[in-house]
Amino acid sequence: MSELIIPADLLPADARFGSGPSRIRREVLESLAGPDSVMGTSHREPPVKHLVSSIRSGLAELYHLPAGYEVALGNGGATLFWAMAAACLVRHRSANGVYGEFSRKFARTLQAAPYLADPAIFEATPGSLALPTAVRGVGTYAWAQNETSTGVIAPVARPVDIDEDSLVLIDATSAAGGVNADMAEVDAYYFSPQKNFASDGGLWVAFLSPAALARSADLTSSARWVPDILNLSMAVDNSQADQTVNTPALATLTMLEAQVRWLLDRGGMNWAAHRTATSSGILYRWAEDHPLAAPFVRDPGLRSPVVVTIDLDRSIDAEELCRIARANGIVDIDPYRKLGRNQIRVGTFSAVDPADVEALTACLDWLLERIRRR
Fold first, then answer.
1. What is the C-alpha end-to-end distance of the chain, expressed in Å?
2. CB-based burial of residue 271 (10 Å sphere; 0-12 exposed, 13-18 middle, 19+ buried)?
3. What is this structure's pTM?
4. pLDDT, tens digit, 9 for 90 and up, residues 7-39
5. Under a CB-based contact definition with an 8 Å cutoff, are residues 189 and 178 in contact?
6. Which domain holds residue 228?
């Protein structure tokens, strides 16, 4: 099947559909080598500080952050933020929604912390959803807004009947910048910028409520030892000075700032959410109509607008389909490896043009027809 060559007039203009790292707009990549680039300069000097300031103010505007909320950032990505949250935001015990690989990883991080009680786990099988409800003795509630491994979207709303001083932590890595949310419902909304924010990995960003700031200040000043790299209060102090604790990746900051401004210039989160819903809707309708495909997430209300997972008929080898697609320049539609399903997974993030998604479905039609005949 390696000789299958998709007609050029069917191919997307940009055929990158990865679920992370995701498509970065080409003009932004080119700007890194431009005359005004901060690449190769000091992160403690005004040009980079202005860049960080623009990111923080732009994100606050994009999400209409309530008064008293802070935009903080630092090195390490969302994976590091899991450890940071365990050290600085969970006092005794958490309750976690677990419905895929990434929501499970955070729960495991909390379970491994020797100074915390095991979390209360609310678990669902991949493709469905489980959210934590009020538990006696729990002061932190956590789940992922978008489970990147399965393509399940979750609501962002404070659970009913939880203690007044409880915190709500939302992993928004593959949702932020492409799915809207009310920040007043959240105490820590955190993400890495390599999805809808069309940047690179290695950075975490968090929107923090006054309650989260107070919890962190209390825990980091108490008997609990917290290394500097995991000290959220130290990261907040540095962020307020428009810098990071240690040297950041300047390219990542540059690309993030460009995408924030790009989204604001086009209408902000309402525009972004409409664009991702349009792109994902094209794929879901295609999968529902095609005899060899079906949306993996059965409940339409749980289907992600930014990560689309599609099961393929047993007569189609998804691995072979993805290999042929890659040979034709259509990259990163492979399924999440640990899910182990015969499927494709398509990132429909903010930087993805819906016209490219339409073209992708035409290419899939062309390939499936020929692969099945063989």
1. 8
2. middle
3. 0.96
4. 999 999 999 999 988 999 999 999 999 999 999
5. no
6. 26-265
